[in-house]
Amino acid sequence: MQAVALNFPRAASCSANPPAQRSPAAQEAGDEADREFNVWACVLCSFVYDEAEGLPSEGIAPGTRWEDVPEEWCCPDCSAKKSDFEMVKI
To answer: Which fold would CATH assign to domain 2-88?
Structure first.
């Protein structure tokens, strides 16, 4: 299964370098810093996005909340859409 996921063609609509900036609402929210970070997993290939770590290789800064990840962002492993991720409790 991993070989299929690694060789799956990336969709042309995927953003290679989404904006690394957090939304103005997230930057200004005082309660935002107090909220726990969540972990999101791709339901297709199990790639994990950790809000605390971000994804600097994809242009997403550490501490970027899932709701602030651009909608056009795709899984770097299998090109799944953001809507194909589910929050995971660890």
So the answer is: Rubrerythrin, domain 2 (2.20.28)
Residue 40 near residue 90 (C-beta atoms within 8 A): no
- Given this model, what pLDDT does residue 54 score? 96
The amino acid that residue 60 corresponds to is I
Tokens for 19, please give them. Answer: 């904006």
**Domain locations in the chain as residue ranges:** 2-88
Low-confidence spans in the chain with pLDDT less than 50? none
Report residue 20 as tokens: 């690394």
Q: What is the pLDDT of residues 75-87, one digit of tens each?
A: 999 999 999 999 9
14-17 long-range CB contacts below 8 Å, 24 or more apart? 14/72, 14/73, 14/74, 14/79, 15/70, 15/72, 15/73, 15/74, 16/58, 17/58, 17/59
Q: Which residues contact 7 (CB under 8 A, 6 or more apart)?
A: none
Contact assessment for residue 72 and residue 38, using Cβ atoms and an 8 Å cutoff: no
